[in-house]
Structure formats: C-alpha cells, structure tokens
Amino acid sequence: MEMVFIAAAIIIGMGALATGIGFGILGGKLLEATARQPEMANQLQVKTFIMAGLLDAVPMIGVGIAMYLIFVVAG
Amino acid sequence: MKSRQSRITHVPLARWLIIEFTGLFIISLLWSLHSVLAGYSAFIGGLIFIVPNAWFVNRVYRYQGARNAHLMVGNLFRAETTKIALTAIFFAAVFTLMEPVYVPALLFTFAVMVLAGGALRWLIRPQPRR
C-alpha cells in the first residue's frame, strides 16, 4: 500500500519539478526577449502562452493518474 | 490612449470553449455507447480539464504589454499553480464524492482534452491587434 503513495508522490513531485524548471526558463526568456524588443511583447506573450499549454500537458495527466492511485487504488 | 487600446491581444476564449465543449460532447456520446456511466464519467473528465484551463487563460491575459512584463510572468506562474491545484482538487473530489465512476473513460477523456487543448491553442492563436 505504501508503494502506491510513493509512486503517486514521485509522479507529482517529478511533474512539479519539471514544470517548475520549464516555466522558469519560459518566463525568464519572455522577460529577456521583452526587454530586448518591447514592441514584440504581445506576440511573445502569445508564443509563451502556447508553449505553456504544451509544457503542462504531461504533468496534468500525471496529476490525474496520481489522484487515481491515491483515491481509488489505495483508497 | 487609443493606440494603447488597439494593441490589446484578442483572446478567442469563446471560440476555444465552444470547440472544446463540442469535442467533449462527441467524446461523451461515443463513451455513452459503452454505457451511461462511461458517458457521464467522460463528460466529467473533460470538465476537469476545461474549467481550470479557462481560469488559466483568464488570468494569463490579465496584463499585457512590455511595461507589464513582470506582472505578466508573475501571473503566468500563479495561474499555472492554481490550474494544477484545481485539477488535483477536482480529481480528488470526483474520486471521493462520486461513487460510481468509470475511471478509464474519465482519464482517457481528460488526456484527450489536454492534448487537444494544446493543439487548439496552436491552431487558433490569440491575435495581437496593431
């Protein structure tokens, strides 16, 4: 039973770590690029938004599977 | 003031929601051929994606323009955190409060909606107005 919780913790933790790194790089690059070319700010925001949607796809599915493990398999 | 307003990006949130709900209804109907339980489980799986994602879009586009870049990035991080937290809460609520749930339909529809949502934002992009 404990292994299920450990598996869920690893899924959520790794997903959070990867999303955090990805969003940190994404936000940093957005600020950097906006500082270089302020007139491109709106287009850069659109591209950041699209990349954010792609970036969080896998962690979102991971959260769903982890909740299933915690509340259905272990519960 | 006028030139500032004309640079605001138009976010096609209504179009996205209409397409997402149409896709969700089709997937739910297909699952309901299996059973009614699978049909409504699939519908709930789609809603678990759509509601936090609509919140995310609403928060991300609260600030625009180069002057507000730091607010934009801060909002992006907060919106993403809230989105993942809302998704986890909704999943936990469904698994604990809804007694008969067909889990394969729920998770499959959620995964399809997540992937389709990313593709939809790629295909129908917000248009920066000049």
UniProtKB/TrEMBL annotation, chain A:
<dbReference type="Pfam" id="PF00137">
    <property type="entry name" value="ATP-synt_C"/>
</dbReference>
<keyword id="KW-0066">ATP synthesis</keyword>
<dbReference type="GO" id="GO:0045259">
    <property type="term" value="C:proton-transporting ATP synthase complex"/>
</dbReference>
<dbReference type="InterPro" id="IPR000454">
    <property type="entry name" value="ATP_synth_F0_csu"/>
</dbReference>
<dbReference type="GO" id="GO:0033177">
    <property type="term" value="C:proton-transporting two-sector ATPase complex, proton-transporting domain"/>
</dbReference>
<keyword id="KW-0375">Hydrogen ion transport</keyword>
<keyword id="KW-0812">Transmembrane</keyword>
<keyword id="KW-0446">Lipid-binding</keyword>
<keyword id="KW-0813">Transport</keyword>
<dbReference type="GO" id="GO:0005886">
    <property type="term" value="C:plasma membrane"/>
</dbReference>
<protein>
    <recommendedName>
        <fullName>ATP synthase subunit c</fullName>
    </recommendedName>
</protein>
<keyword id="KW-0138">CF(0)</keyword>
<keyword id="KW-1133">Transmembrane helix</keyword>
<comment type="function">
    <text>F(1)F(0) ATP synthase produces ATP from ADP in the presence of a proton or sodium gradient. F-type ATPases consist of two structural domains, F(1) containing the extramembraneous catalytic core and F(0) containing the membrane proton channel, linked together by a central stalk and a peripheral stalk. During catalysis, ATP synthesis in the catalytic domain of F(1) is coupled via a rotary mechanism of the central stalk subunits to proton translocation.</text>
</comment>
<feature type="site" description="Reversibly protonated during proton transport">
    <location>
        <position position="56"/>
    </location>
</feature>
<dbReference type="InterPro" id="IPR035921">
    <property type="entry name" value="F/V-ATP_Csub_sf"/>
</dbReference>
<keyword id="KW-1003">Cell membrane</keyword>
<keyword id="KW-0406">Ion transport</keyword>
<feature type="transmembrane region" description="Helical">
    <location>
        <begin position="6"/>
        <end position="28"/>
    </location>
</feature>
<keyword id="KW-0472">Membrane</keyword>
<comment type="similarity">
    <text>Belongs to the ATPase C chain family.</text>
</comment>
<dbReference type="InterPro" id="IPR020537">
    <property type="entry name" value="ATP_synth_F0_csu_DDCD_BS"/>
</dbReference>
<feature type="domain" description="V-ATPase proteolipid subunit C-like">
    <location>
        <begin position="6"/>
        <end position="69"/>
    </location>
</feature>
<dbReference type="GO" id="GO:0046933">
    <property type="term" value="F:proton-transporting ATP synthase activity, rotational mechanism"/>
</dbReference>
<dbReference type="InterPro" id="IPR002379">
    <property type="entry name" value="ATPase_proteolipid_c-like_dom"/>
</dbReference>
<dbReference type="InterPro" id="IPR038662">
    <property type="entry name" value="ATP_synth_F0_csu_sf"/>
</dbReference>
<dbReference type="GO" id="GO:0008289">
    <property type="term" value="F:lipid binding"/>
</dbReference>
<comment type="function">
    <text>Key component of the F(0) channel; it plays a direct role in translocation across the membrane. A homomeric c-ring of between 10-14 subunits forms the central stalk rotor element with the F(1) delta and epsilon subunits.</text>
</comment>
<dbReference type="InterPro" id="IPR005953">
    <property type="entry name" value="ATP_synth_csu_bac/chlpt"/>
</dbReference>
<feature type="transmembrane region" description="Helical">
    <location>
        <begin position="49"/>
        <end position="74"/>
    </location>
</feature>
